Amino acid sequence: MTDQFSQSATPSTWSREKIFCEIGRVLTSSLILEEVFDTVMKLIGDYFSPRNWSLLLVDKKTERLKFEIVMGIDASKLDKVYLEKGEGIAGWVCETGQPAIVEDVTKDDRFSPRIDELLGFATCSVVCVPILNGSNEVIGAIELINKIVPAPGGTSSESPPVFSDTIDVPFTMLDMEILSAIAAFTGIAAENAFLHQKIKDTI
């Protein structure tokens, strides 16, 4: 699992055109899966400004979800922590293959507080989308938690946001649509990387 504790989300000034251009550049520049996932997740943080965000992959043997990349928190706290099949919003997304957006997790039965309790964190809103491979099978999910909007005067362009001076707001349907498109491109890149590695292993 990649530890990205030092990477803080910054208030987004990116256009949709820029994020898709950057995603396209990343996905065509590497066939190393870890590099693709890592760079995509950094771009997602810059664009959406989530407080925490993660990429989870489905374990084919157990069907549990593994936290492959975690950003915004100390990733070591989720080392060897799995979500059971269907657990939480990410589990529901992977089980159904459908994206989900939740403005208030306290009003959604799909939400599991287990990870919050483990981290001492309070999830308010979530947007989560599936990652599909070339066969349209779910291989994982990208989940964003608590969108950050800086309070007036709370941050500057020279420094990262101070979390105590920020305001969390719900994600939007547009956020979900854009994240779904990014996840679709990421799934294709992952499939290419898997095939590339498989060919290398046979040589």
Task: Please tell me about this protein's structure.
With 203 residues, the chain is α+β, with helices and mostly antiparallel strands. The protein has one domain (2-202): Beta-Lactamase (2-Layer Sandwich), CATH 3.30.450.40. The chain is built from five helices and eight strands; from the N terminus they run βααβββαβαβββα. The chain has helices at 16-27, 33-48, 88-96, 114-119, 173-202, and strands spanning 2-4, 50-58, 65-71, 82-83, 100-102, 126-132, 138-150, 166-169. Strands 1, 2, 3, 4, 5, 6, 7 and 8 form an eight-stranded mixed beta sheet that branches. The two termini are 28 Å apart.
Helix/strand order: EHHEEEHEHEEEH
The residue fraction in helices comes out at 25-40%
- Tell me the CATH topology: Beta-Lactamase
Strand elements, count: 8
**Shape summary:** globular
Q: Please give the alpha-carbon distance between the first and last residues.
A: 28 Å
Which superfamily, in CATH terms, is the homologous superfamily?
GAF domain
